[in-house]
Design brief:
Blueprint lengths: L6 E9 L2 E10 L3 E6 L10 H4 L2 H4 L2 E6 L22 H14 L6 E5 L1 H12 L6 E5 L21 H10 L8 H12 L5 H11 L17 E6 L7 H9 L5 E5 L6 H4 L1 H13 L11
Parallel strand pairs: 3-4, 3-5, 5-6, 6-7, 7-8
Antiparallel strand pairs: 1-2, 2-4
Length: 286
């Protein structure tokens, strides 16, 4: 029997003037790396890397569930609200969590919508971070599907979401991890995947901000799976080309959820990405 090194706790923050009880997990020590899950999912997507001794020996990985996701409950009176994630609320949540956990300029690693918001923060609040790892991230992707299908009384939203997700997982992903990844989406709360996709497919404000990102102060590394149908390698390249000084890698054999669907395949790419980020004792010489 072995006990994993991941520990989970709760922290209370305020977002948009209201309290939020946030669940977060962490493992490791050293340079802080804040990890963001994809739309409709939760921190379990990062569990493999958080159990990787080579990664955690010098990096403190921290992953949290956004409100409405995983173990972070919705706000009070949520039954009277329509959940629609916004760029403003997303950014406020991340910055409030950094303050609450007293993180000193962490690296921000986000996937899918997490990668999108990482680039927003690179443009708007670079001083809060030491670097950005944007996974399956692009400037904007309009929906090629009807997001309302994920919150209907005559359909199981979780299973509908898993069907969409399945098309974005690489055929090279191990069967067990494919099914584990899909299971997270099947467990998504009613309307949560739809609310996340509203942010992902309707907010195009990042496009005009890409030129504001200064990679000489905070490096930006973009990663994209070769089998990603939602954020394709061409989409990622277009975005990287618009960020002067950013770096880009196309990951063979991986899809839209690399850390979850194919952890062994993703591992060397993520370690390389961490190596591109400033060490913990790096000083801002600007």
């Amino acid at each position: 029997m072995s006990i994993e090194p991941i520990t989970g706790r709760y922290v209370s923050i305020n977002v948009q003037g209201a309290p939020r009880r946030i669940y977060f997990e962490e493992a490791g020590q050293g340079r802080p790396v804040l990890c963001l899950h994809t739309a409709g999912a939760d921190t379990r997507q990062w569990r493999h890397l958080m159990n990787d001794v080579e990664v955690t020996s010098s990096n403190r990985l921290i992953a949290f569930d956004l409100p409405w996701h995983g173990k972070s409950l919705p706000p009070e009176d949520f039954e009277t609200q329509e959940y629609l994630l916004t760029t403003e609320a997303y950014i406020e949540t991340i910055l409030a969590l950094i303050e609450a956990l007293e993180l000193d300029r962490p690296i921000l690693a986000g996937c899918s919508m997490g990668g999108r918001i990482a680039l927003q923060l690179a443009a708007l609040h670079p001083e809060k971070f030491s670097g950005f790892i944007a996974i399956e991230a692009s400037d904007f992707q309009p929906a090629w599907y009807d997001i309302d299908w994920f919150d209907r009384p005559d359909a199981h939203g979780g299973e509908m979401g898993a069907a969409l997700v399945s098309a974005n997982i690489s055929p090279h992903a191990p069967s067990a991890e494919r099914e584990n990844t899909l299971w997270m989406f099947k467990q998504s709360g009613p309307g949560v995947f739809r609310g996340d996709l509203s942010f992902y497919t309707r907010d195009d404000s990042l496009i005009a901000r890409l030129g504001d990102i200064n990679t000489s102060k905070t490096p930006v590394h973009i990663m994209v799976g070769a089998y990603d149908l939602t954020c394709t390698p061409d989409d990622a390249k277009r975005t990287a080309d618009a960020i002067n000084g950013s770096t880009l890698v196309v990951m063979d054999d991986l899809g839209h959820f690399p850390m979850s669907e194919h952890p062994k395949g993703f591992r060397p790419y993520f370690i390389d990405a961490l190596n591109k980020m400033p060490p913990r004792d790096a000083k801002d010489l600007s």
